[in-house]
Amino acid sequence: MTTTDVAAPTRAEAEALDRGDPLARFRERFVLGTAGADVVAYLDGNSLGRLPRATVARMQQVVEHEWGNRLIRSWDDTWVRLPRQVGDLIGSAALGAAPGQVVVADSTSVCLFKALHAAAGLRSERSVIVAADTDFPTDRYVVEAVADQRGLRVRWVSPPADGGVDAALLEPALLNDVAVVALSHVDYRSAQVADLAAITAAAHAAGAVAVWDLSHSAGSVPVGLDAAGVDLAVGCTYKYLNGGPGGPAYIYAASRHQSGLAQPVPGWFGAADVFAMAPAYHAAAGIERMLSGTPAVLGLVAVEEGVRLVAEAGIDAIRAKAMALTDLAVRLADAWLAPLGVSLASPRDATARGAHLVLRHPEARRWSEQLAADGVVGDFRNPDLWRVGLSPLTTTYVEVWTAMDIARSVLADLTGRPA
Amino acid sequence: MTTTDVAAPTRAEAEALDRGDPLARFRERFVLGTAGADVVAYLDGNSLGRLPRATVARMQQVVEHEWGNRLIRSWDDTWVRLPRQVGDLIGSAALGAAPGQVVVADSTSVCLFKALHAAAGLRSERSVIVAADTDFPTDRYVVEAVADQRGLRVRWVSPPADGGVDAALLEPALLNDVAVVALSHVDYRSAQVADLAAITAAAHAAGAVAVWDLSHSAGSVPVGLDAAGVDLAVGCTYKYLNGGPGGPAYIYAASRHQSGLAQPVPGWFGAADVFAMAPAYHAAAGIERMLSGTPAVLGLVAVEEGVRLVAEAGIDAIRAKAMALTDLAVRLADAWLAPLGVSLASPRDATARGAHLVLRHPEARRWSEQLAADGVVGDFRNPDLWRVGLSPLTTTYVEVWTAMDIARSVLADLTGRPA
Hints:
Shape of chain A: globular
Strand content of chain A: 5-15%
Number of strands of chain A: 13
Largest sheet of chain A: 7 strands, mixed
Distance between the termini of chain A: 6 Å
Number of domains of chain A: 2
CATH architecture of the largest domain in chain A: 3-Layer(aba) Sandwich
Largest interface: A-B, 82 and 81 residues
Order of helices and strands of chain A: HEHHHEHEHEHEHEHEEHHHEEHEEEH
Structural class of chain A: alpha/beta
Oligomer: homodimer
Number of helices of chain A: 14
């Protein structure tokens, strides 16, 4: 190690943080890998959360017993309830949503498509969707498509690259022609946490409805949908909810809107009586009206197991650890990486960022690739970002310390500068 | 047993059919149940196909190794290819579709929604969708929704209750205002097989495009999409393809249409470069443009295992056994059930029906419920139908014989008439 301008936290300090971590016991509830022994630090729980041990047994039980033995009979007594049952669990564990407002189904893209159509239908006399041009690609694509399909215009706001949306940025866009404000709670690049309550209130003050994508916040940052009066929301389950690769997404619609909500893909599972095979479509009275096709059972049960761990740990404890983990990473980056030309592209204030961090360097692509080869798994994001997700239920402080130690060595090698 | 007007096939005859069955060896490739020993006859493979033994091991491998150990890295080297890889397998095994025309994603409802929007976009100067008012509820609901969203009208045709659509029925509806003809290949109630080639040709002659729902035919009846020049098609995977409960659906779009196809839910997995996070949406060049969100990995791998068995058995052998199984059931129904007031609500000609059969009786609901309690698992369908699916890879002739034997006893008890 070389001397730096900032004193780096020591490994001993990281070890002490782990010893004092009230969530430390959750790590052993996940599969940590045998063939994955080549992974020194898994900092990609924000892309794909680790596998809960309970999921292994549950999948086997569902496949071998519920499908293999009980066959079609499992629909009646078990499976038909899963979209709502897992939705309620996500609602209480992660979203601050009372029961009866969340169902799990489809992909995030499809859920967002439904939510935006439903939201626009609540303000059919208005002509504009407000969205951020820095949002995740699927969000931008779906916003444009829904606007086009409904004859609306998109009024894009342009948050700073290393930040995110805030009420001041949105204020000039919130004119009385706005039907829907569609934003992400935590920015997928910078990790900035939007002020969901303030922006929802501003949207309402302008007469618009607020639709939130919670993919990067659910399970890592308290959301508080009911308290903020959010209208609709969607999100994925495979990040901090540990629901598995391509797990089904969720959609929230506030109870007060449900009886009037029209979604664009009316299918048999959204009908008032699924098995009546009725001649005309009558939407279910409650949140089930947001469903369309047959629920994806294998995905749903994996989501349920993942979310149970979030429920058990408690979102406030998870949030506290996420802030402490990212704080440690920031301090290490300041000490070790800043001298190598790395800048922090996430908010410096822990309360203003989610559970991931983005570091900027011109060589980010090669840096990220070499780190992955060395067992430090993060994400490269175009054009010059290395993104690390610090998943509170599975990431240790020593893992962060080790990852950053390797990161500076790799970058020093790449840039020919002393670490 | 009492004497009847028609000589019933004997159990010995059913046993002989099983001994001569070239597909008999496939039954042991499926989990036949231990806790499911209470199932005497599973005649619901048309609602949920049995669990292939290979799926058990594959699910475990994907969950524990690909997710648990390899984590995010499995996306790059394995999972990202699944929608197309499993789609091509379904195309070759069951649909008569050359590679590059099928992807697996979403639910059947969502796939049909996309297919109908894409199809209508190919005939944007036209104003009508032709569909059957006897089609499966989701199909009718989605047809109505897409028509409403695009300012089209639905011209409903009304097939006979115990039959299905044919070219003669459709002919008066196929005027020069028709954009899309949207039908099911095998009727979900009667099991009538529509003449897909003739109807597709008639649709084309009228200047329309043809969209088929193959849910009740794929894996039991050869489809021949390419040979018939079908434009788009969708279907589910959890029936004769044995893909598991709520398994992802598939969507076919003929190569000749792909470059001009616009689907309504543009998401990141349908983009030309999924991970480019591009500012604007550019659809993938090929069939991947029909994708939207993140692929449902756990569902996809289960589908792959199920379809492999169809590929291995061969769709022509499957079709031959389906006809023989339903023939046996019809002969038994004629001999044993007709005297109890049961009528056949499916085509009598085996070449005109799929792999399920529907029997009509005023007491069908109670009959079906009592049969299920006695271990003979079929479906009740409103208002007076008992539906049995005879899945050629898993159903034996003796199973059919036994089921019908119990069916007549139960119905005799219910109706107070001698069996």
